[in-house]
Sequence to fold (390 residues):
Amino acid sequence: MSISLAQQVMRRCDELAGITDERGCITRTFHSPAMQRANKLVGRWMRDAGLSVREDAAFNLLGRLESSRRGAKTFLLGSHLDTVRNAGKYDGPLGVLLAVACVEKLRASGVTLPFHLEIAGFSDEEGVRYQTTYLGSRALVGTLTGKDLATVTEKGIEKARRKAGEFFGYAEAHIEQGPVLEARNRGVGVVTAIAGQSRIRVEWEGRAGHAGTTPMNLRQDALCAAAELTLAARACGVIATVGQMTVKPGASNVIPAHVTMSLDVRHQSDARRVAAVRKLQAQAKAIAKRCSVKLTWTIVQETNSVNCDPVLTNLLRKAAGKHEREVLTLPSGAGHDAAAISVMCPVSMLFIRCKDGLSHHPDESVKTADVAKAVAVMSDFLVALKERHA
Fold:
């Protein structure tokens, strides 16, 4: 049965991939026309599975299966339905559609739960539209800042906040976005922690000049400074990436006068991440002095690392053990809605193998057999959770 459900999940991922704001690629951003159409389509699939469906003030899609037990709390499953630009089919949507398949599997087996079960299709995990990640899940848990609310055009999204203590746990299935499971020939793995992140905007202000007449030792080249920091990031000892760079005036015969670049630093140890950021900032100051340019260093976002809950993780590991001869546990270097939800309740995550570890790319690929395994694992996890709360 899991195979047929997995095939259904794959077909739905294909259909959802056709809903996009940009022709020729997959792009869905917060509350865009494509996101609104995606919510309607996934909402219909949720209703077909027997869930009551609504959209909250932050445009999160929520499907709920009510328990008959009086005073029951709620367990949350989910992931996100938004995408990066020119995305693949599976980063985010697979976790939502897999959760819907688990509900179908449990209901077909006659399993009833002693707790309410809710599935969230979060509206903004990637942060593409407003450069603020986890907008949907942070609205749900109530951690949006005044700056967030001032930035967002849509008003009233803070009304999506749920009551403290309403959820007793959260589980998210997601493609690994890395190569470990494929290298070890495992279809699924259990996540132990989510790396913390620092996102920084670095600006270099130099002076434009003629490329042919300005001596090298008299230049104030903003791009040379940016290039030095890029190489320093590569050698800093943690995961660090320069993913964006804007060069002005941008002419082949003019010395670059202004460069704006992004810097993304990650590690599952917050202490190591913070130390790396401080070291890079010190290096940037030295580079600016040496290159005679002005440096502006702005922290755009900082997210602490999150340890997955040991109780939920152990239940998930035992469920995975029924379907894998060896259950791999591994940290996640990517950010997930689970990190935002962790301030409200314990969290857990299941990784699904993806081809070549590729993500944030149109060539994202997963195997139907691995999706079937993940449906079985998550369903067994919910049954184990039922037994624990019987």
